Amino acid sequence: MKKYVFIMLAGSAVLVATPAAAEGFRAEVHGGWDHASADGDGESGITYGIGLGYDLPVGEKMTVGLDLSADLNTMEECETSVVVANDRACLDAGRDLAAAVRLGYKVSDKGTLYALAGYTNARFRFAYTTPAGVTTSDGENLDGFRLGAGYQHAIGEKVYGKVEYRYSNYENDVTRHQVLLGVGVNF
């Protein structure tokens, strides 16, 4: 997995080396539905975050670029009386970081369909509270890959809106599905 991250970072260095006058840098905020599951048991919540990227024109209709994102969410699942009466066990999904390559196809002057593929790393935390109120917790970062597709539409000269679907597959048979709406600015 680390060799794929290195390849993506090396590719992004080429994109970042493009002169500042080049168009294609973007920043956005996004949010939407998030569902994470392990071994078929899952929990849904709301995800929200930021994204940065750069899209380089390749020909008349195609773009290739780098897509970076950092997200948080509201997912937490708790159960009581797991080991003994009145104890509590909780699992929550923490931050989610991703770096992906994005390929786009301009379907109109204002609209672009795109697909993305890349690396993702998510934090999951487990907490157990005894009936006496003593809590122990542990967290784990899980590496994985992300696939996605979306549509981005220009709203004025610099502002855009987007809708995006993401599928992430992490270690330990953990998967995530997300549907996002976003608003961003092109620089």
From TrEMBL:
InterPro entries: Beta-barrel_OMP, OMP/PagP_B-barrel
Signal peptide: 1-22
Segments forming domain Outer membrane protein beta-barrel: 9-187
Gene3D superfamilies in the cross-refs: 2.40.160.20
Family matches, as Pfam families: OMP_b-brl (PF13505)
Listed transmembrane segments: none
Lyase is among the record's keywords: no
The entry's keywords: Signal
Keyword Transmembrane helix among UniProt keywords: no
Protein name (record): Porin family protein
Lineage, broadest ranks: Bacteria, Pseudomonadati, Pseudomonadota, Alphaproteobacteria, Sphingomonadales
